[in-house]
């Protein structure tokens, strides 16, 4: 599976106010591994950068004046991302701006017509409800180094997001794999599942670990007066 971790920087926050993309950064993942390939461009927006946005990313109007317009690199960008799954933090923001740039360039269709989109902000909110789920907060939670992020940058942030996404989703790598039936009450302690040529270890609990887990479930059920949703002795405590 090919995924593209993507981030943008813009002249300001509000698309309705005519703000434009000034930087796109993309990192390629294939079967959950960074390939070293990336796509990165600064873009001439045709308008001034807001002071608030400049304070965030530090990309000046003078610098952008010498860059290509989005329309000049649109075909190259689409060739890199078409048919992939885009991994984006707060995808609604970036995808909205990308769709606007495509439309302004006379290119029909939206990003969602070309790519699947995975929003890591929505994923983080599902995994960590009620907690801060900004990219910086996730870096701290998953021990991802963001020490060089004094100013935002699309390629820099895409690289950081790739590390965060892989850390967040690492436990999900084997889901959906048909690895065949177990050969006894407890399958082998560990085995390897295959996904697109990538070997993914699947570790299974031992009889001793399962017994200890069952005892812990029984203790929790007793302490709650039998008000737990699971029932000790049912499969997987369900």
Descriptive notes:
The two termini are 33 Å apart. This protein folds into two domains: 2-172, Ribonuclease H-like superfamily/Ribonuclease H (Nucleotidyltransferase, domain 5, 2-Layer Sandwich), CATH 3.30.420.10; 207-237. The chain has nine helices and seven strands; from the N terminus they run βββαααβααβαααββα. It is an alpha/beta fold and 238 residues long. The model is unreliable at 171-198 (pLDDT under 50). A five-stranded mixed β-sheet has the order 3-2-1-4-5, sandwiched between helices. A hairpin with a 2-residue loop joins strand 6 (190-195) and strand 7 (198-203).
List the helices and strands and how they pair.
Elements: E1 2-10, E2 21-30, E3 33-42, H1 51-57, H2 61-64, H3 70-81, E4 85-88, H4 91-104, H5 111-114, E5 116-119, H6 120-127, H7 135-141, H8 154-169, E6 190-195, E7 198-203, H9 207-223
Parallel strand pairs: 1-4, 4-5
Antiparallel strand pairs: 1-2, 2-3, 6-7
Strand-residue fraction?
Answer: 15-25%
CATH topology of the largest domain: Nucleotidyltransferase, domain 5
CATH superfamily of the largest domain: Ribonuclease H-like superfamily/Ribonuclease H
Computed CA radius of gyration, to the nearest angstrom: 23 Å
Q: Would you report the number of β strands?
A: 7
Q: How many H/I helices?
A: 9
* The first-level CATH class name of the largest domain: Alpha Beta
Mean pLDDT: 84
Low-pLDDT sequence parts = 171-198
């Amino acid at each position: 599976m090919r995924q593209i971790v993507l981030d943008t920087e813009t002249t300001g926050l509000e698309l309705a106010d005519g703000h434009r993309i000034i930087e796109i950064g993309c990192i390629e993942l294939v079967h959950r591994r960074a390939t070293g390939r990336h796509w990165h461009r600064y873009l001439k927006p045709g308008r001034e950068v807001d002071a608030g946005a400049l304070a965030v990313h530090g990309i000046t109007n003078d610098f952008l004046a010498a860059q290509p317009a989005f329309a000049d690199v649109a075909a190259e960008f689409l060739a890199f991302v078409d048919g992939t799954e885009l991994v984006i933090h707060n995808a609604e923001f970036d995808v909205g701006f990308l769709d606007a740039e495509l439309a302004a360039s006379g290119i029909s269709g939206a990003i969602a017509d070309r790519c699947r989109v995975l929003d890591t902000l929505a994923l983080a909110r599902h995994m960590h409800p009620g907690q801060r789920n900004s990219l910086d907060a996730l870096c701290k939670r998953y021990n991802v180094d963001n020490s060089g992020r004094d100013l935002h940058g699309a390629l820099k942030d895409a690289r950081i997001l790739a590390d965060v996404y892989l850390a967040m989703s690492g436990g999900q790598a084997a889901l959906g794999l048909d690895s065949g039936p177990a050969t006894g009450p407890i399958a082998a302690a560990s085995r390897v599942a295959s996904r697109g040529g990538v070997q993914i270890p699947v570790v299974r609990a031992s009889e001793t670990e399962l017994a200890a887990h069952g005892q812990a479930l029984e203790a929790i059920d007793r302490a709650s007066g039998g008000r737990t949703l699971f029932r000790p002795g049912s499969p997987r405590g369900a």
